[in-house]
Amino acid sequence: MKNLTLIMLVILVLAACNQPAQQDATATAAVPGAGQSAVKDDTSEPDVVRVAVNSPEHTTLVAALKAAEYVDALSNAGPFTVFAPVNAAFEKLPAGTVDNLLKPESKDALRNILEYHVFVGVIKEEQVRNGMTLNQVNLENVTLNKAGDKLTVNGVNVLGVVKASNGIVYVIDGVLTPPTQ
User: Which InterPro entries did the record assign (predicted)?
Assistant: First the structure.
């Protein structure tokens, strides 16, 4: 009887070894050829793009990221400091500006503006010093100012700060416009 039990145990172990591995339900592989943003992950802290996607106040920014084809770039490891204008910030721009920037022929201009909102590295709120400058992805500088609890970037108010898995998002009430060259 003891030998029969041992034989049955060996058969069960061998059978289990021949079974295909179970797929983790929390993260699935992306569509072939798709970028990092296509990876499904409902358990990790959201990255900077998912912070914007999950915010009803950032639909215009998300549309701009898609038009510029920057969703995958900002979904990568980073780290990034992103200054994310709310929808109302885009509404302050002259009429037709956003529509024109979203056109395929304006992709370079749109990318320049979006790159002016991103710093490679994480600058936490407690690290900000009055008059601090950051060299953005488009190689132009922004200036951060801090007076008590009030934080601004190029004079635009920071409304809130959201930590992300690949950086930090500063929610702002204006669109940062790069200096003209």
Answer: Adhesion/Biosynth-related (IPR050904), FAS1_dom_sf (IPR036378), FAS1_domain (IPR000782)
Rounded Cα distance between 155 and 168, Å, is 19
Answer whether 74's CB lies under 8 Å from 48's CB: yes
Nearest Cα to Cα of residue 87 among 103, 117, 64: 64
| CB-count burial class (<10 Å; 0-12, 13-18, 19+) for 141 | middle
Beta-strand ranges (E) seen in the chain are 27-28, 40-41, 80-85, 118-120, 132-135, 141-147, 150-153, 156-164, 167-172
Domains and CATH numbers, the chain: 44-172 (2.30.180.10)
Output the pTM of the full model.
0.76
Could you give the CA distance from residue 152 to residue 159 in angstroms, rounded to a whole number? 9
Whole-number Å distance between alpha carbons of 100 and 128? 34
> pLDDT, tens digit, for every residue of 36-74?
444 454 555 789 899 999 999 999 999 999 999 989 888
Strand partners, 41: 27
